[in-house]
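Lab notebook, bench 4. The sequencing result for the construct came back, and we need a structural model before the next group meeting so we can plan mutations. Quick request posted to the team channel:

Model the 3D structure of this chain.
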Amino acid sequence: MITKTIAEELNSMDYHGRGILIGKSPCGKKAVIAYFIMGRSENSRNRVFVEDGEGIRTQAFDPSKMTDPHLIIYAPVRVMGSKTIVTNGDQTDTIYDLMDKQQTFEQSLRTREFEDDAPNYTPRISGIVHLDDGDMNFAMSILKSADGDGSSCQRYTFAYSNPIAGKGKFIHTYSGAGEPLPSFEGEPKNVEIPCMPIDDLTKHIWDNLNADNKVSLFVRYIDIETGKYESRIVNKNAS
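Done. Here's the predicted structure in token form:
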């Protein structure tokens, strides 16, 4: 599979929908997580990320303009001990709750499907990073309709042990333009993780997202040895 730079990948499409990037820093000391949301409707664009404990949640930028919180308001990031969960919907809570009951990441997602937004049937994309004895592993998942047929759900999980420093995986909801929007296809994409401080990487990702459609971005660096983290949030709707 071809490995692209973040800039190349983000500039390949005007509308990725929502996207998750997970990888390891070039120095091998940090787990890197990024999650962004894009929007085309006024309701989708009327959002911001805010901190919520060790994670984040979405909220309406202007509550008076929020017409439908369904599929819009959720907690994209939650932390469970040495595990960080990141998703594009309320399946974050499903993963957290069922893993707390000793189910696995994959098992917990068997209870969920793609979003009920026919005719798009937007995929549910999820990721989890686990720090383990001085190293990290991670997994990604996509729950999608069967070629746009909402009667059938296809579930794919991709697991990565001992990821290579300076490399990451990127998954997003849509594979291009269309009516309805076509779902992401294939494995998560290979991307380079540049050697940058978190502020520079945050700016780099934000600057390369489509200016008209980007809404919010979250980036986190986690020290693989200690579990300490630092995070950044960028909102197009700045307060």
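The first strand starts at residue 3 and ends at 4.
Will bring this to the meeting.
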